[in-house]
Amino acid sequence: MLAQSWDLLVQRRDFFWGLLLEHVEICLVAVLIATVFGGIAGILISEYRKAAKPTLVVVNFLYTIPSISMLGFLIPFSGVGDATAIIALTIYALLPMVRSAYTGMTNVDPAIMEAARCCVP
Q1: pLDDT in tens, 24-59
Q2: What's the rounded Cα separation, in Å, for the pair 62 and 56?
Q3: Fewest Cβ atoms closer than 10 Å to its Cβ: which of 20, 38, 43, 117?
Q4: Rounded to whole angstroms, how far apart are CA atoms 112 and 97?
Q5: What is the rounded average pLDDT for all residues in the chain?
Q6: Do 77 and 94 contact (CB within 8 A), yes or no?
Q7: Neighbours of 97 (CB within 10 A)
Q8: For 67, what's the count of Cα atoms within 13 Å in the CB-facing half-sphere?
Q9: What is the full DSSP assignment across 36-92?
């Protein structure tokens, strides 16, 4: 069984290599989108503290949805394909991005913030 699988992999390596590259591309696009939007959201909720709790609740809720359910929910809107996968992966990547940006911004030492403000003309 293992030998047959290996033979198939070797014989169709171009096909599998293409699938691997497509998978990596989809993941990179999703992570880049989540980094931009998650970073912006994390910075904004660190500035506007009243929005932090509701934003984190929504992002935590989205993270708890099982992936197959998320895909099933998104298919009527974006169809079957790369766009649906990118949207789902972006949603799952938002929680660590938003939480990390928020935590990082709120835990900066106030003395460092004051020093940074002094240097800006």
Answers
A1: 999 999 999 999 999 999 999 999 999 999 999 999
A2: 10
A3: 117
A4: 23
A5: 91
A6: no
A7: 22
A8: 7
A9: HHHHHHHHHHHHSGGGHHHHHHHHHHHHHS-HHHHHHHHHHHH-SSHHHHHHHHHHH
Q: Report the alpha-carbon distance of residue 32 to residue 101 in Å, rounded.
A: 14
Residue with the bigger pLDDT between 119 and 47: it is 47
Residue labelled with tokens 């799952």: 92
CA distance 118 to 74: 48
Q: Which two tokens stand for residue 111?
A: 């003395």
What domains does the chain contain, in order, with CATH numbers? Answer: 2-119 (1.10.3720.10)
pLDDT-derived band of residue 116, with 50, 70 and 90 as boundaries? confident
84 and 75 in contact (C-beta within 8 Å)?
Answer: yes
In 3-state terms, what secondary structure has residue 1?
Answer: coil
**81 closest CA partner among 33, 20, 22, 13:** 22
Query: Token match 């949603």: residue?
Result: 91
